[in-house]
Design brief:
This protein is mostly beta strands. The protein contains 1 helix and 51 strands. The two termini are about 45 Å apart.
Length: about 675
């Protein structure tokens, strides 16, 4: 299969380097006192930055042109005017980098700006009214166009409007009999909104930082629905020589990445006939460093040789097991973990299904070519002889009408307790996403255990545990209650401790890599069996991406490892479980390796199982029987560190930060 190889074109830089010297603002009021009349200079993005490149490549728009229409407004949109460059009273410089116009603003802004200007005027939201353009914003409607926005800074003299480019772009040439194309990310990424609200941030200082926050805010009675595709109809650019562009407005912070690549589909008379696709990760994130706003442009060149006939996929009918009659596990929401009670005989031979979404939400995983059980375990020192001992069959089905996949699996006739991970893969056998199937020996319950001051309702066992840990004074805590280990912020489990007599981890049908290199979050999805070993105690995090604080949170995130209805608990210092040794019913049994809290006779019990230390050259379990870390979902202000409850065998405890590269226990709480 041929692949489309892409070279990132030169990034566009829009450095807005301004003097911090304050100048007197000279604004002449019009004779009728209804507003101000001012001549403004419009600076094209990058024009005053000697290091910048042309905005959209050598064949793209690089400056102002006769006929360009600018939407100009003050405090209220109802007083807006449209200025057409080339009309009397306007000028365009020879190099096209600057243009001037004179306008009367009847309702000027009263903060650090007088006016806001948007290009093109045709992209401004229709039916705008007085309360949709207040002080600091422009509002664009859904459109496939280069969007530029600017405002005049009164501290810079009040006469200069420096524009920034709000869009990344992907350009291509194509030859064929087409009249429409559709662009979309393979993982269902948001590529825009039905309405864009553009707000500027001017940080001041020696160099003022000019960049826009583009978001899908909804004001008044307007909607700002997220868009997962861009459709260009009535299109005549399929002549092999026209450069076509997909414009992708940046979201807040300038982040844009297609983790599963993207697809461009070509239509004729409403019928999909050709398409081109890449599964490579494509990053078009903007550079928003101190004094620059650099957008990204990706030029695909002539994609005609890579077009493939579109063949409507037939449903991958999961007849073995049959999808018909399958029980949906995601009825209360999608997640990265689903529970099937192995202690319930009625589940034998039963078929289950869930939508192939990335954890919480409806983000699609991409085009699935195969599914399989990646690994399975009984949570003991003996691995299953085959994954089918825990999950008999697994398949997938493409729901054509709704454009999503479902994962379907069938339980064996003789149920066995354990844990398994199902993986969905693409045509190149790359892992797109994985889901943890948790098969405990008994029904999972939850309680606040009398620790009600924290307002948290805890599961009765660790995530991945098969049974409830018991606070016995006569015997060691049951190894089936240990559960699995989780590096903070990762969605995928790592093997738990096998027993208290050695540091060995439970046996699985798959092979884990315990000395993996630091990776991106996207790479972690494709490598769920790789534990990062940072190899030095000074290293905090397993990932190159920042900030890590967004990976888990007080609300369920895409990376949250808990099943539907549950989430990793928020840290609440001094309350509930997080009160530690000072909390109700706290007790540690050093001999039998457990600690408990709660109000008699209802105790929450944790086995003291150590943790996987990712700060070693090769990650391994340490401190079994002497220490345990129970993760919260709360990160500290230092990237790479998060709060947990640490309990020691001597009966002491502490609420402290811990390195996210280490893998500890998770006890989920009800959402």
């Amino acid at each position: 299969m041929k692949k489309v190889y892409m070279i990132l074109a030169a990034a566009l830089a829009a450095a807005m380097t301004l003097s911090c010297e304050k100048k007197e603002v000279l604004i002449e009021e019009s004779a009728n006192q209804e507003g101000i009349t001012q001549t403004f200079t419009c600076v094209f993005p990058g024009a005053d930055d000697p290091d910048s490149k042309v905005t959209l490549g050598t064949d793209g728009k690089i400056g102002w042109e006769v006929g360009d229409e600018l939407f100009v407004h003050g405090k209220n949109g109802k007083n807006a005017v449209v200025v057409t460059l080339g009309d009397p009273g306007t000028t365009i410089s020879a190099d096209k980098k600057t243009a001037t116009f004179t306008a009367t603003i009847s309702d000027p802004c009263t903060y650090s700006s007088t006016i806001f200007v948007a290009y093109p005027a045709s992209a401004i939201k229709d039916n705008w009214s007085s309360n949709q353009y207040l002080y600091w914003s422009n509002r664009f409607k859904e459109t496939n166009a280069l969007l530029l926005s600017g405002y005049n800074d009164t501290q810079d003299g009040g006469t200069t409007i420096r524009f920034i480019n709000l869009c990344a772009s992907i350009s291509f040439k194509v030859d064929g009999d087409f009249d429409q194309y559709v662009f979309k990310g393979n993982s269902g990424e948001t590529v825009g909104y039905s309405t864009y609200t553009v707000r500027f941030n001017n940080n001041g200082g020696d160099k003022k930082r000019y960049y826009a926050y583009v978001s899908g805010e909804s004001w008044c009675d307007n909607t700002a629905d997220p868009l997962t595709s861009i459709s260009v109809t009535g299109w005549t650019g399929a002549d092999g020589s026209t450069v076509n562009r997909v414009f992708l407005p940046y979201g807040d912070g300038g982040s844009m990445s297609f983790t599963g690549g993207f697809t461009i589909q070509f239509y004729k008379a409403g019928a999909l006939v050709k398409q081109v696709s890449t599964s490579k990760v494509v990053n078009l994130s903007a550079d928003t460093s101190s004094d620059k706003y650099t957008a990204k442009c990706l030029d695909l060149g002539d994609i005609t040789p890579y077009l493939k006939d579109y063949v409507a996929p037939s449903s991958h009918d999961a007849t073995t097991p049959a999808i018909t009659g399958a029980t949906a596990l995601d009825g209360s929401g999608s997640a990265n973990c689903y529970i099937v009670n192995a202690g319930d005989d009625s589940n034998a031979n039963k078929v289950f299904k869930f939508k192939a979404y990335k954890g919480k939400g409806t983000t699609k995983v991409g085009t699935i070519n195969s599914v399989s059980v990646l690994w399975a375990t009984y949570n003991t020192s003996t691995a299953p002889s085959a994954t089918t001992e825990l999950i008999a069959e697994v398949d997938y089905d493409k729901q054509e009408a709704n454009d999503y996949y479902e994962i379907c699996f069938k339980m064996p006739s003789a149920l066995k307790a354990g844990n398994a991970v199902i993986a969905a893969k693409d045509a190149a056998d790359n892992i797109l996403w994985t889901w943890h199937i948790w098969m405990p020996s008994s029904e999972i319950t939850s309680s606040d255990y009398g620790l009600s001051d924290a307002g948290q309702t805890f599961m009765d066992r660790n995530l991945g545990a098969l049974v409830v840990a018991e606070a016995s004074a006569d015997s060691d805590v049951n190894s089936s209650s240990f559960g699995l280990f989780y590096a903070w912020g990762r969605k995928d489990p790592f093997p738990g401790l096998c027993n208290l007599s050695s540091s060995s981890l439970i046996a699985t049908t798959g092979s884990f890599i315990m000395n993996g290199a630091v990776m991106s979050v996207a790479d972690s999805y494709a490598a769920p069996m790789t534990m990062v070993a940072t190899g030095a105690d000074a290293n905090y995090t397993w990932t190159t991406d920042t900030p890590t604080s967004v990976l888990w949170g007080s609300s369920k995130t895409m990376n949250d490892p808990c099943p539907p209805g549950y989430v990793v608990p928020e840290f609440k210092n001094g309350k509930g479980l997080w009160a530690g040794a000072s909390g109700a019913g706290f007790e540690v049994n050093e001999t039998h390796k457990w600690f408990k809290m709660g109000v008699s006779p209802n105790y929450i019990v944790f086995p003291i199982v150590g943790y996987i230390d990712g700060n070693l050259a090769t990650a391994a379990n340490v401190n079994r029987g002497s220490r345990v870390y129970v993760w919260s979902s709360t990160a500290t202000s230092t990237d790479g560190l998060s709060y947990n409850l640490r309990v020691n065998k001597d009966g002491t405890s502490s609420n402290e930060w811990q390195r996210q590269a280490r893998a500890g226990s998770v006890r989920c709480v009800a959402e």
